[in-house]
Amino acid sequence: MDIELTRPYKQRIYFAIISYNLGIMLLKVIILLDWLALFSPAALGHQGRRRSAVFWVCHVLIWVIIVSYIIGTLLYIFQCTPIEKAWMGPLVSGPGARCPIDVLMHLIVSGVLNAVTDAAILILPLRMIWRLNVSRRKKVGMSVVFGVGVL
User: How many domains is the chain partitioned into structurally?
Assistant: First the structure.
């Protein structure tokens, strides 16, 4: 297949991946802000209450996610010089045309980081649910509702 014919599709995929990364980052941050509002009301400005471990875990996760996704997206955008080389490949040549970033290593690191943060987002509400003073059956039901995100 001619490289020139696939260029528009590769360019769309390139920009779709950037949009996807930013969308997933926002979705994870929104979920964590929801957990904050639900499980740590002191985080919302109620006076006289000490901030819980949930508050701190959520904030650490939020900042880890924001920083890692911004760095990962910037690495993806600027993986090649000039940027067009990322989707045009060998059609862009000349002095300075190169792709110095190891994309495979970037994907491995971001995949591991995503797995860790996703697991933390999943486990965080379960810890709080199992500390509630309700029957075991209700705890299982609530855990299933919060665990639906795994699917």
Answer: 1
**How do residues 89-101 score in pLDDT, each as one tens digit?**
777 777 878 888 8
End-to-end CA distance of the chain: 37
Domain of residue 55 covers: 3-150
**The pLDDT of residue 130 is above 90:** no
CA distances from 129 to 60, 138, 148 (A): 21, 9, 15
Distance (Å) of CA 54 to CA 15, 64, 87, 124: 35, 15, 42, 7
Please give the structure tokens belonging to residue 84.
């067009």
Q: Which residues contact 69 (CB under 8 A, 6 or more apart)?
A: 21, 22, 24, 25
The rounded distance, in Å, linking the Cα atoms of 24 and 9 is 22
| CA quadruple 47, 48, 49, 55: dihedral sign | positive
